[in-house]
Amino acid sequence: MTIVELMVVQVHRKTVMMVSLVIGILVIQKLGLCIHKEIPDFCSASSRCTVGFCNNLTNKCDQRPISCDDGNPCTLDTCNPSLGCRNIISTSICSDYKKCTTDICISDGSGGYTCSNVFSPSNCLPAPSNFPSDCGTFSCDSTSDCGVKLNTSLCVRRSNMLTCENLVCNSLSGFGDTQGCDRVTTCELDCECVSTPMYPTGTCVCTRASKRNLNLDDSSSIVMGSNLIIALFFILGLLSW
Q1: What residues does each domain of the chain span?
Q2: Which has the closest alpha carbon to 61: 78, 43, 79?
């Protein structure tokens, strides 16, 4: 078959198809039958998280939720009715529950992931309000958690301190214009550090309890001495008799 003959055959086929289509439409119209064709975008979405579609069963518009899955296991996939899909990096999937580490999720691109927990001392900053800033450092400890490291040598003596006073670092309290450094006396038990006219820079003065103990000791010594004298006179009297 020549090329001309092939072209004639193709034209003939198309002509037959067109004639058949026209005849079909005329028959449908003559019989009063209806052709239903869905109107594109007739059912609009109620939010940015749904797609509107025509439900053939109810002949009403319905809503179908969209998928916000981005295929990345390291993201938390949610949908906001006003903003649409939100794919936020998850901070919990790789959490080791340690303050001093930054938890990173790394997607392998095929649905899997690996975790990396990077040591980050800066996570401890800023320090809490009750931090003893004058004598401590707030940083990561050996357990990879934030903690206070006390150092009494960091306490700086104040000009109004007495010579019999010293400073000790305490994470729970402070004194005066210090933050964490507590005043303590260097005096012995039952004595206190005070300023007197004779010792304006401070001296240790015993309390009443210690003085009372001292008086009792002195009285005992006096009584013992008196008894010895009486016994001596008694012996001398016997010898002379």
Answers
A1: 71-122, 123-208
A2: 43
